């Protein structure tokens, strides 16, 4: 089989390297696993590059879909301050339910890998009677102050079969509960402390013998960020989405009739609070404080503010970026935007929420999808990666194109002249294709940026008939 083929992408033809035949997370196809202990990630090949103001982008098939209706996912992160990588693979055939998870490690920046082993953190592994649980690794970073790797772990508890519970949720009946915990490692993720809760209010703690204890489920609910930010003052910042009490006005009450059924109930909106961790050497743990919440009226975002991420600007200001949603509203009258807030006191207090704009002052459209910041060691500049729409989006779609842009840190805003497309809908892609839920890191040797992303919706028939791709961004 010729490992290289060309497909049209955004009006031009790209050669795509097949880095493996199948992820083979199912035990019956383990022999087809491309991720052997000595795999170097696939053979080298000459690749055409998409060029833009910030540099070049190369796209490769990293994990092909093993069969129709099943999408591989991949999350790659560094553990510690060196070159040790962890790669977690999963298979998904249902929304928000990754299963069949496996993990492998590389001590040499991905040149060679350990064998894949099961990672029993999904709902297909964690069950207690009719209660199901998933523990997903959301964010990890190395803190030079504590000399620890800190990892934020998302825990969701389902009161019933997960896919059925999620179906009820979209109909307005919420039967799952989200919490955030964290763990620490002093040896680059080889061993970890027990999970420790992240809290902002009183309530019971998690009990391994009784996952569904109401006093635990109904307190400290939150959905954390996908990034932990190390601040120059020696602290760490971690934002999370949670429910905030809110007094509706007349306009809100009129709009509520158009709300999606799964929006926050009357009297609440989805807001964001920032957790600040200061290392306590005597306790070998962080001491946490939490900021007051930021939020917007339902007429600005019917689903509140979510998937927050923080970047520290050159002058020490913290920039908080959040997704919103105009789901249920007229997309022209209530356009989808990226929402931001600023803190000039290290994350303790935040400004009123406003929309993220270009440095020209122009507004832009954005769907309800995640975005991420990354500061390049090569250029020293801060970059934003996320979806920007050509036309007003409806709720969370469409999720294309995917852009990278430099942040003008003095305003702050996106430098319009630097907008560079990472990926866009191609003629053979379905209208539902999306470029979101990506893993982003900077290669610590080459200083290139790497993105791992599953192009859900790229093929007709099922959104999950999709491959996982690796994108390499070489900045100028």
Q: Which properties best describe this structure?
A:
476 residues; mainly beta; five-stranded antiparallel β-sheet; 3 helices; 4% helix; disordered N terminus
Describe the protein in words:
The protein is mainly beta. It has three helices and 30 strands. It has helices at 162-170, 214-217, 250-256; strands at residues 4-9, 12-17, 50-52, 55-63, 71-78, 85-92, 99-106, 117-118, 127-128, 131-143, 148-159, 176-185, 196-197, 223-224, 229-230, 236-245, 268-280, 285-290, 306-312, 318-323, 338-343, 354-355, 372-375, 382-387, 402-408, 413-414, 420-423, 439-442, 449-454, 468-475. A five-stranded antiparallel β-sheet has the order 3-4-30-29-28, with no helix packed on it. A five-stranded antiparallel β-sheet has the order 9-10-11-12-13. Strands 14, 15, 16, 17 and 18 form a five-stranded antiparallel β-sheet that branches. β15 (229-230) and β16 form a beta hairpin. The longest helix is centred in the middle third of the chain and has 9 residues, at 162-170. The radius of gyration is 22 Å and the shape is globular. The model is unreliable at 1-48 (pLDDT under 50).
């Amino acid at each position: 089989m010729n490992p290289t083929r060309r497909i049209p992408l955004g009006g031009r033809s790209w050669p795509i390297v097949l880095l493996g035949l199948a992820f083979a997370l199912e035990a019956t196809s383990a022999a087809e696993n491309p991720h052997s202990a000595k795999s170097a990630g696939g053979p080298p090949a000459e690749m055409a590059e998409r060029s833009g103001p910030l540099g070049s982008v190369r796209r490769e098939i990293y994990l092909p879909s093993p069969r129709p209706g099943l999408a591989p996912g991949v999350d790659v992160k560094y553990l510690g301050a060196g070159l040790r990588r962890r790669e977690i693979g999963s298979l998904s055939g249902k929304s928000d339910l990754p299963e069949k998870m496996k993990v492998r490690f590389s001590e040499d920046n991905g040149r060679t890998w350990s064998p894949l082993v099961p990672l029993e953190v999904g709902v297909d592994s964690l069950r207690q009677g009719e209660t199901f649980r998933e523990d997903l690794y959301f964010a990890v970073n190395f803190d030079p102050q504590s000399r620890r790797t800190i990892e934020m772990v998302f825990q969701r508890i389902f009161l019933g079969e997960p896919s059925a519970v999620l179906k009820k949720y979209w109909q307005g009946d919420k039967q799952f509960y989200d919490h955030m915990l964290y763990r620490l490692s002093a040896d680059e993720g080889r061993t970890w402390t027990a999970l420790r809760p992240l809290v902002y209010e009183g309530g019971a703690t998690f009990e391994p013998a009784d996952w569904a204890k109401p006093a635990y489920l109904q307190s400290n609910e939150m959905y954390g960020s996908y990034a932990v930010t190390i601040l120059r003052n020696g602290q760490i910042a971690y934002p999370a989405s949670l429910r905030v009490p809110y007094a509706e006005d007349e306009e809100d009450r009129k709009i509520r009739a158009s709300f999606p059924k799964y929006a926050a109930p009357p009297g609440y909106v989805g807001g964001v609070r920032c957790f600040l961790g200061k290392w306590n050497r005597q306790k070998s743990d962080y001491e946490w404080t939490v900021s007051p919440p930021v939020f917007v009226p339902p007429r600005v975002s019917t689903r509140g503010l979510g998937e927050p991420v923080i970047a520290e600007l050159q002058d020490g200001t913290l920039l908080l970026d959040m997704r919103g949603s105009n789901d249920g509203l007229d997309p022209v009258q209530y356009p989808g935007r990226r929402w931001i807030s600023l803190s000039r006191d290290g994350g303790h207090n935040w400004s009123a929420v406003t929309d993220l704009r270009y440095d020209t002052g122009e507004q832009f459209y954005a769907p309800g999808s995640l975005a991420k910041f990354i500061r390049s060691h090569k250029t020293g500049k801060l970059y934003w990666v996320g979806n920007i729409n050509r036309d007003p989006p409806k709720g969370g779609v469409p999720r294309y194109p995917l852009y990278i842009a430099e942040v003008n840190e003095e305003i702050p805003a996106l430098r319009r002249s630097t907008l560079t497309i990472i990926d866009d809908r191609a003629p053979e892609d379905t209208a539902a294709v999306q470029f979101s839920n990506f893993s982003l890191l900077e290669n610590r040797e080459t200083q290139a940026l790497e993105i791992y992303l599953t192009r859900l919706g790229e093929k007709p028939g099922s959104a999950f008939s999709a491959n996982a791709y690796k994108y390499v961004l070489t900045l100028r």
